[in-house]
Amino acid sequence: MLAFAAMVIMGLTLGLLGGGGSILTVPILVYLFAINPIEATAYSLFVVGLSAGIGAISYYKKKLIAFKVGIIFAVPAFLGVFSARAWLVPALPEEILRLSNFVLTKEILVMLVFAVLMILASYSMIRGRKEEKEVKEKKIVLPLVALEGIVVGLLTGFVGAGGGFLIIPALVFFAGLPMKQAIGTSLMIISFKSLLGFSGDILAMPNIDWHFLFGISLLSIVGIMIGTYLVQFVPEKKLKKVFGFFVLIMGLAILSEQLFNR
Fold it and tell me: Model-level pTM?
């Protein structure tokens, strides 16, 4: 019951903040549902993709999605995610490194990288984003947008996260998008790359539990709908900082558990 409630809370957070909640999906799957980390990162991509898609629809209705820039970012990002899921993760050996009594396995490496990503995400949420002034006719640096797409795709594909905290700054600084449009475009990119990236797992993981996957996705969507409704009553900046500290504690706890409790 705690695990199911946590999926609703993850969706609620995503609905309230427009991002960030997906960073909780892998820890929920690993520590509450007791799912193998490699499998959890795959399931996370599916849940995050559906959740971000629901969020993107509301931004589309408000005309806050830059499709041209989004596609330029999303296509390389998809290639990065697909490559990570179809070839990079399966190609890693089960035992990567052995130092005295510590053995770095593929599962531990994934969780360590994920913990670092959580800590970086928490810093972004605690610091907050400065509202960027819209600059007319700002030149879009398309090669940098595409390059960022590949890097974000590989990284988030490896750990099964959405990566909104990496995508949004790229859209603001390299593509010159206003913050709200960057958030909406980011949700579209996350949905596109996550769901298509998950297709790489379908090739590598023939025994996917689809009933479980759709069940937890439905819970996260319920949370998103609640969060979207509550967003008008909740001060976003304060909530984001509190959630940022929570993610920071979670990231440090996972890092400590993987390094010292072995």
Answer: 0.76
